[in-house]
Amino acid sequence: MTRKIFGSLIAVLLAGSVSVFAETLKGSITDKMCGAKHMMEGKSDAECIAACVKHGSGYAFLEGDKVLDIENQNDKKVASELAKHAGHEVEVAGTRSSDGKSVKIDSIKMPKK
Ligand SMILES: [Cu+2]
User: How far is the CA of 70 from the centre of ligand 1 (A)?
Assistant: First the structure.
């Protein structure tokens, strides 16, 4: 009896882990308008992203060829990290949305070489 309850508890915990726990995503910080390619002439990717964001585009996370929305980019701490890492290859600790189209960021760091 006790064992049975314990077993189902574990099953619930395992099922929950798919969406609840943060994972590490590898990619780069971009903006929604440009996505994978920055086309502003004479500007670096970082400058392009800064300009796009200033003109109303949001930051986005580029994972492979997928552009993910960043759900909490208006969070002060996240926003300053995004500005710092615009255009960089980064590792993001965060949680993917259930539809896989966006991510909620916990922290951003440069990958170790
Ligand atoms: Cu841009």
Answer: 15
